[in-house]
Model the fold of this input.
Amino acid sequence: MWRVTIYRCAGLLIASPLQLAAPTVSPKLGVVPDVEVVDGGERVVPHERPSSEVVAERVVNGDAWYTFGRRGDVVVGRFYGLADFEIETAGMDGAMWRVTFHLVPGMPIELIAILITGTVVAYLLSADGRLVLHASAVEVGGRSLAFVGQSGQGKTTMATLICADGYPLVADDLLPVSPNGGEIMSVPVGTELRVREKVEALLEWFDPGTARRLTVDERRAVAAKTTTAPELPLASIVVPWPDRDADAVDARRLGAGEAAMTLARCQRVEGWSSAAVLRAQFDAISAVVASVPVLVMHVPWGPPFRKTLAREVLLAAGLAPAA
Done:
């Protein structure tokens, strides 16, 4: 039997037999995790939807990458060719989820840990009415600066540039945000940055003692310094526009309508069918664009990247770099 550890990820306590890239939590008497991860054993995952009642689905160029489908009281998250996740409410008061995973035979189990702290957590939060952006974020002066966009748009690269300059990591790949009074709050996720091979030279900018590893999905991960805050006010949102021909960082603030459309396209889980979820997302996005600047930022792109780029980005985002 595997040892179960409790992790904190995106504001959730997750009891998992797998090692997750998230801070661990010392178990205390009476503390009940929000999510219980269970190994359901290997099984073949057919290339068909898990149910005719589709809850959410991502389709790229006509091919479905994942589908969440309802089967009675259970929602099955199917990642084609990789795994099934059976999601059900487990707590007596309906406050806890049980997530049972079934890995496709021959696939590395480390992929399950990546999916749990990524798409599965984003699904749980979104289904519960939270807005989860497809974003990476860093802490600057007690607030968070988020980089949003589609896959491959430079979100992690931008966060890596800033973290390599000494700023703490808030999140990589997903960022839960929610209105709280007059502010929009962001919740930290994870403890490492996972960069693509073509920009791995950025990892050499970190202190020599910073832990690095090659992930199962062939990314280069670095254990960046992370924020210690349980949540942070969201200062600004940047849509990076990598530009190899640009000489300087150039930022343009979007109007409310364009900003709302941009954020609607940059949610971590796509293709929702639930009217309640779509309404919650619309309301949250409206609150965000009403109080947080959303900028399109053209960034001189590498490799190589110039050493001053992190500070230029912060200035363009309206944030004062540390002395």
Summary: The chain has two domains: 5-128, 133-316. Helices lie at 110-127, 155-164, 256-264, 275-291, 309-316. The longest helix spans residues 110-127.
